Structures are given as structure tokens and as C-alpha cells.
Amino acid sequence: MNEKILFAVLLLAPVVGFLFNGFRWKSKNYMIAGSVATGAAGISFLSALLLVSKLFGEGAPKSVSAGFFDWILVGGLQVGASFVIDHISALMVLVVTGVGTLIHLFSVGYMSHDERPSKYFAYLNLFLFNMLLLILGDNLLLMFVGWEGVGLSSYLLIGFWFSDKEKAAAGMKAFVTNRIGDAGFLLGIFTLFFLLGTVNFSEIIAKVAGMSVETGWTGPLTLAGLFLFVGAAGKSAQIPLYVWLPDAMAGPTPVSALIHAATMVTAGVYMIVRLSPMFVLAPNALLIVAIVGAATAVMAATIGLAQFDIKKVLAYSTVSQLGFMFLACGVGAFGAAMFHLITHAFFKALMFLGSGSVIHAMHEEQDIRKMGGLKKYLPITHATFFVGWIAIIGIPPFAGFFSKDEILWFAFSSPLGGFPLWFAGVVGAACTAFYMTRLMALTFWAKPRFDEKHTHPHEAGPSMAIPLIILAVLSAVGGFMGIPHVIGEILPGHPGNWLEHWLEGSIAKPEGFGHGSKVMEWALMGISVSVASLSALTAYNFYVVDPERPAKFVASLPKLHNLIYNKYFVDEIYFAKIINPIVGGSRALWAFVDVNFIDRGTFIVGDFVKGIGSTARTLQNGNLQQYAMYIAIAVAAIFLYLLEAPKRLLEIFGG
Amino acid sequence: MPIADSLANVGLSHYLVLSAILFTFGLLGVLLRRNVIVILMSIELMLNAVNISFVAFSRYSPNGNMDGQAMVFFVMTIAAAEAAVGLALATTIFKKFREVNIRYFEHLKG
Fold this sequence. Notes:
Oligomer: heterodimer
Distance between the termini of chain B: 62 Å
Distance between the termini of chain A: 98 Å
Shape of chain B: elongated
Number of domains of chain A: 3
CATH architecture of chain B: Orthogonal Bundle
Structural class of chain A: mainly alpha
Number of domains of chain B: 1
CATH topology of chain B: Helix Hairpins
Order of helices and strands of chain B: HHHH
Number of strands of chain A: 2
Radius of gyration of chain B: 18 Å
Number of strands of chain B: 0
Structural class of chain B: mainly alpha
Helix content of chain A: over 70%
Largest sheet of chain A: 2 strands, antiparallel
Strand content of chain B: under 5%
Number of helices of chain A: 27
């Protein structure tokens, strides 16, 4: 089929769904709303599949694209509404529409008791459309439109239950925090446009190809890279802008799965991977990316150790995993970042949907201290969650093992990496294994800690089970798309690293990347797997074998636990050091500068005009004869002027 | 100087001066008098002052141009119409206020 038509269907199907549900937003029929929205997402997925299939086979093009119209033509800035599926965006578009469709399907069950299902599905479709704009746009401006659009949908969905003030505030927090990042993103676009005169991805890549590697901190590419990374840090919840993501869990759980775990929050990683040829020329920018990524990975993982809200644990886990992806980007392993993005989308969406299933079954209870023993009540959820668990802690041969190990290996072996980055990654992985096992144990294993007589948790219908099962399968086998060479060599049939091959040529590599001894790779793999297993085993001992121990252990380290339990007091610090001073400063500006100078200035101008007006007003008093006199005087004056009276008088009397 | 000589020496400027004097009288009447009837009469005076100028210009034009004389008829017609309207207004004002003072015209607004 015609590529342009397919692109149109791919992009517009969610728009149609959005409009359909948006216009009947009062309807409470979740079946109609859900089927239309899911259908729209499914159609998008199918057209994405058809489009991506054109990239396969002998002599297939490197990319398929479609230009619809010229969007902005201003001087040197020429931006078209053009879309492209290349080897990078192909992966992303399949993940987003595929996982998106499953989550839409899950939502049909999850939102069946909600008051406003049509509105919910309309927002969900709106999100999908904007995400597709972000992924498929062939230039930074179009990406930015999608970037803002997903921010809007995210805001709407976080605050979906806005009658709860805390949830509405969480939506606002996400929006405002993202604004900071967006400002950085815009500055990055400006810098690139100023430097290269284009915002088109392929042109940017073509133009930077001839440039040499920047060594300083103030080179244009380094600056652009850092600005863009500020944008990425906002959208993808990295230090210091990660604070919105844990609060974003106020939204419905499928939203957390789709937007705040699988797709939108990975947009920052995607953007950096897209611009990888530019980023490799700015190693100092990459260094910052790597350090921030590693720090986020460790910090968020430690916070996850002490949280009791099932969604908060998963949220900090997401922040931490995103940190891993940025760590990969930072050491130049863009392929590994993409790989982890995909596997993470599978297992984190799976775990979020699983937690949604648990929350649904427990009647909106999210505190894992009040769960336990759910294994026998929720067998499907438990089984699928189990797969997600071993995938995320990195046990071979599940998806997370391959992607996380690739990141750790490159963090160690890349010329941009090194031992500290690798070590931070391993610590993060160990913490991940611990808190995930703790989550499993507290939720599904051990004895129930809720009132079994009154609460009867049970599995929801097939619309919630099917997505869980599909995602569990993907989490189990998803890693096989990127089998490392050292493992592929010893396997029967010697499977290659398909993903690496697929991305070859689409992403850039830093100088001297991808060398390292095989023994070392095996050794590091062994270390990370054993650290993760040990950590998981410890957690199992803590929470299943001897449930009394965590309390005692915490009691022995009260200060540390307090610090972690309260998330390092980051929100409080932000309020004390940044937000309150700004609010106070603004208030002072208002009370002093605005009132005394700006207001007064406008009053003076106003009074002046008013004074003139009140003087001029007396001329027009309704006295006809006075009007006639004005006319007479004016006519006389005109005659005097025309007759050049002053000159004549001068001639007569002066000369 | 005998009167006949003086009459023979009357030229265009004499007419124009007369016209200007009459026009000024009329204008002063319009501006200063309060009685609507008198104001209307003053307006007639101004119009006729202009008519004198027209006729004078026509009479003294080197090629005997009659435009000015034709114009006078139009002015007189308009003046008649204007007088009719003005007197009607004056009658109305008088009916209402038992007086024809110009200040009552203020009450015509709104």
C-alpha cells in the first residue's frame, strides 16, 4: 500500500479515536469507549507493522518517509510536516503502538467502574497521537510538538481524578517540572539551528559528519548536547528533575504503565539516540549524561528499597532504569540504551499492569504492608509478575539480563566509561534486585496481612489477563533480539546480535568503541548476575523466611532508613531552597516593584490622558452657538493662512 | 465729488466689501443672538451676502460668465428650504417652551 496513506492511518487513527470519545465524553459506556480507543491503537499498530515491514528484505530502503505539507517556511528555517520510519524509530514505533494497544486493552477492564471512561480513553488516544508525532517527526520541531503534546496528555491523565487535590497537584507538578526541561530542549534546538541552520534530523547528522570531536566545555555541540540533555532529564525523570515521576503515580495505573514507564519517559533516551552522531562529537556532554544517569540509577534504586506503596516502588524503579539507559547513552552505547528501552518497556509495563491488577483486586489498596499471600488469589497476575521480576533483576535468559548486562559491559569497556560507572551500575542492579524481590515477597508471598474474611481478591476478566500474558512472553523472550557475541558463540546455531546489526549505521559510536576482552565480559557478567542473585536471595530471607528481620534491621539504622524512606528529602529541599525563595522573591517584586513603579507609571500616564480629556471636554458643551463660533474661527484661520496674511502684514508694516 | 462720478466709479471691490460687511453682520447675528427667528434671519443675511458676491463676480467677469448668476438661484432655493425647516423647528420649540431661545435646542439631544 501507498506509504503516505499508511503514515496517515498510523497517525490519524488515534486522532479519530480521540475525537470520537472526546465528543461523547459524558458517556459512561466503557465498552464502546474502550473498544474504539483500543481499535484505534490497534490500527496504528498494524499500519506501523506494515510500514516497518518495508525495511526488511534484500535491497530494502534504510527508511520510509512521507511528507504531508510545508509547516514553517521562514527564511532559512524550513520545516515540513514530514514523518520518517528508519531503523531507530521503527523499534520505537512498534513498542509504543504495540505496548500501547495492550495497555488500552487492559484499561477496558481496569476503568470499567470509572465515572468518566470516555474522557479517559480520549486522553489515552491523544497521548498516542502525540507520542507518534514525537517518534516519527523527521525534525526537532515536530518532535518538540509531540514532546509538548505528550506532556499535556500526561498532565491530563495524572490529574484524571482531579477531585482529589493531591492528584491534581501531582499533575501540575509533572507539568511544571517538565517546563524546565522543555526550556532546555528549546535552547538545544536553537543552538543547533544557529550552528547548522537546520532542524531536520538527517540534515543535522549529515552536517555534523564533517566536524571534529569537541574537547572543551563551551563548544557549540557540547552546549547543544547539554541543553538537549536538560530536556531529556525533564521528560525522562533524571536528577535533578526526576521528582515529578513518583508523584505521577497518582494517575490510573494503566497510565502509569503506558506513559510513565514504557513510552513517554523514554522519549529523552530516544532523542539522544536519534542525535547520537552529534553527541559522540561532544564527549564532555556525554560524560555529564553518563554521570547523571549512573547517579539517578543508584539514588532512585536506594529510595525504592524503603517505599511501601506498590506503585511508588515501581516508579522509583522506572527512574532508576531510565538512569541505566542514560548511563548507556553517556558511555556511547546507544544501541544498548535502545535495547534496554525496549526490554524495559516490556517488563515495566507488565509489572505496572500487574500492580494495577493487584490494586484492582484489593479495592484500590496500594500499601504492600496490607497485602501478602496474593499468590493463591491472583495466580495469573502472580505468574506474569514473576516473569517481570526475574526479567528486571537480570536473571538469564530473561529480557532484562541481556539489556542490563550490555549496559554494564559497555559502562566498563567503552572508552567513555570506566570502573566507577560500572560499579554504580552494579550497585543500582543490586538494589533493583533487592527491592523487586521485596515487592514480590510483600505482595504475593508469605502470609496475607489483610482481612481475608472481608476482602476477596480475584482475577479480573480476560481484557486484563491477555495483555499481562502477552507482555510476560515478551519479557521472557524479548532479550533474544540482542544476544551478546560471547554468548552467541557458544549457543547452537551461533545467533548473532540482531539488534546491533539492525542499528548498525543508524547510530554513531565513539572512537575505539566495542573492544574488550571476552574473558572480562564473561567475568563482569558473572559478577552482575551473582550480585543480583545474592541481593534477591537476601531480600527473600528478609521478607519471606524471617519477616521479623527487616524491622530489626531498620531499627539498627534509624537515620539511614529515615533518609531513604523520606526520599532524601529532595522535595523538601527543593521547596526550601528553590521554590519558596522564588515564590517569596516574586511576592516581594509584586509588592514593591509592581505596585510602586509599574502600577504608578501606568497611573501617571492614565492621569495625564484623563487631564487632557477633561480639558478638551469643555469645548463640547452642547452650546450650538459656541460650535458655530469654532467653525467661524477655523474658517477665518484657514483664510488667513491661504491669503498668507502674516506675510502681507509684514510687507505692509515691516517694509 | 459729484454723486454721478462716484456711481460711475463703483467697481467689483465695492460689491465685495459690501458682501463682506453683510456676511460679517450675519455671522455676528448667528453667533451672538439668542432668538432662533433672528438667527434664521441672520443666516439669510449671510446667504444673501454671498449672493451679492456671486452676482458681482458674474457681472465683472471679462467673458460674461453667467455661472455666478445661475448659482444665486440655487442658493435662494436652498435658503427657502432651510428657512422652512428652521421655522418649523422654531415653531416646535415655541410650542413646548413658550419661547424661541436657542438654548432650548440642547433639549433635542437623546
